Amino acid sequence: MGFASAIRARSPPFLIMNQPITTETTVAEIVRAVPGRSRLLDQLGLDYCCGGKKSLADACRRKGLDAATVVALLNALDATPTDRDGDGINPDKLTLAELCDHIERVHHEYLRQELPRLDFMTRKVAAVHGEHEPRLLEIRDTFADFAVAMALHTEEEEKLVFPAIRRLGSAAAVSDTSAAPLKTTLEKLESDHDRAGSALERLHALTDNFSPPEWACNTFRALYDGLRELDWETHQHVHKENNVLFPRALATCGAM
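The chain above was modelled as a monomer; its predicted structure follows.
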């Protein structure tokens, strides 16, 4: 069952806030309720964007973690009086149009600024140190494919998909004929996200979780730090689309 099909099969379609966390709570629901929980899940290597439909128990089992311990860690985090929103934004509190605007302004703009910088750095570090560390050549190729795919992906969203979603948010009624094309388009975008997630997982492995060797120069170290930030930022970006924006858009046009 694909991500979109799993969402349609759930009832109700959206998270009931303040539900206790159990091992059967989906990873996406955990982050939707309190976005700042994403940082703990990132530390544990639990995927809450492309893998968000999995239960916590399933996600922990795949990572060799004890789900009950993770529940306890999350409860302890919730009991800590601090601002735990991952990037200061709770996407559930935004309208469809506001969420599209936020994703473009924050996440798409981040990619426009950062991808060219990382493109230069992956090329330079691979050229200088690739003979000593051959994995840098694969890092370069993996990043280059990721960057091209994400540039095309964000362009499609800004020119076609987000304008359609904004119209959904402002329309008094939505015809049934708009549902099927939107479902198909969003399923394609989710497939793009899956491929981006696979690329980031590969970068994790190739960089030893973004840990440069002791002999690495400053540019080498800066590259790994930039890739680590790209990984975290992409998780935030994809979560807001896969787990919030797309399901709400489908529900608005009666496609859930």
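Confidence is low (pLDDT under 50) at residues 1-17.
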